[in-house]
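Obj: model holo form, ligand = adenosine-5'-diphosphate.
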Amino acid sequence: MFSNAEIGIDLGTANILVYSKTKGVVLNEPSVVAIDINTKQVVAVGIEAKEMVGKTPKNIVPIRPLKDGVIADYDVTAQLLKELLKKVSKKLGMSMRKPTVVVCTPSGSTTVERRAIHNAVTSYGAKLVHLIEEPVAAAIGADLPVDEPIANVVVDIGGGTSEVGIISFGGIVSCNSVRTAGDKMDEEIIQHIRKKYNILIGERTAENIKMEVGYATPTHKEKMMDIRGRDMVTGLPKTMEITSTEIYNAIKESLDQILETIRATLEECPPELSGDIVDNGIVLSGGGSLLNGMQEWLAEEISVPVHMAPNPLESVAIGTGRALKMIGKLQKAAK
Ligand code: ADP
Ligand code: MG
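Output (holo structure tokens):
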């Protein structure tokens, strides 16, 4: 039995990833819990719970306890983590008792929220819990030389939040977080379809539309997509066709908010580091950065090179895992 497992956790608003020091990413599941409101029991977590969204009887409610980038519901988050960590121990074929854990926290989180994250992990029985700031984890995971005295800029667009951080010499020089990211775009798509066509669509459908025909660029080769929803007038199911141009217009406001946050952060950059940004540019991570045309659009808007992280959906998890190694080193040095 392994009593000293070491894992990194990316507690994302949309997806939770667990990284094991020895095996890499061992779990990647949606941050969703399905609860029976009559019995208060957890019915499903992760992938199974996400598949239930919008399809269950009234007493089963899917909850996203981390939706806005902070722990809104502490108990549910603790249960979600516990169930997911159980899955991890099964997969790794070893006990996860008393693991050493590195968890990333959103850069805008308050002391109270950090404590809540710390407690949720400790309640699972972790021996040691280290918190690392999300932009730092994302930058490490994206292979940026964060320890050097140069500006490393990372933009992480997730589900609930977008974070922009400038990291130099191992620490955050400046960073900003906004509660506008992938989820907000999904909501804007739902609103648009409802207002324009009187048709109700679910969150999953909206997310699929965004991934398939959502664009960050106004000019692109137009695409069409058949979608299904419920006609609000007749109450009956209906299929209809939408275009990528109208979806672009629907999500434009979110895109602009993300752009403003990036601009504001770059403006806060000390002048000595600005030169690095002109040369090295910025790195995109997070699922939201996979939106069609995102890289090209940002490069044009901010006039510096824009690169994609090697694995945008896993950067933060990989970064927490690499941070584990650094912590191991530090502990050895201290002995
Ligand atoms: P978090 O770190 O907040 O959990 P993630 O980095 O896992 O978030 O990203 C989740 C978001 O990325 C969701 O809003 C999802 O819809 C979006 N996303 C994932 N893949 C794509 C894609 N190919 N195109 C556009 N958005 C995407
Ligand atoms: Mg994330």
